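ok trying again, last paste got cut off:
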Amino acid sequence: MKVLTFSRTFPKHHARASEPTYFVQRIKQSIFGKSDKNEIWHPKHHTIRAGHRWKVGDKASLRVWEKDGGRFAKGNKQIEFAEVEIKKVWDFELEKLNKYSILCLSIQDYHYPITSHPIHSGLIKKIAQNDGLELADFISWFHLGRYIIPSFAGQIICWADEVNYD
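nice, full thing came through this time. structure:
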């Protein structure tokens, strides 16, 4: 079984650094269909990771770090909060097209060709929401602001049957 760890707070480079992400609650909403303490969360149906090591049918242990500081905090341990089977995987890329930070998204289901969309299209908003984030938070997560990384390549790793980007 592979491990996926999730942040409890937004990272240091993010516009909302150190604020809670509520990813655990959002993932539980996705998996179990209800949220803790009657809170209404936008469910987190997938995660996006660099690399290409995931495939449909893989089992994943979803975890958070016990304390802030992640693996670098002395004596810190991971806490598993769910186990899932990966239902869908898409190759995913974001790239800067020019000096004005015009961005392009490429997403590929292994059965369909790559499609490209401007960053503010409905598709990127849908991906951000299914990732448990508002569009502005999604863009900031990937450093997609003024000092954008040249590109990001990885996978969307999805445990929810209802998500589809075909």
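cool. The first helix runs from residue 23 to 32. The beta strands are 2-5, 46-50, 59-65, 78-85, 88-96, 103-109, 115-118, 151-158.
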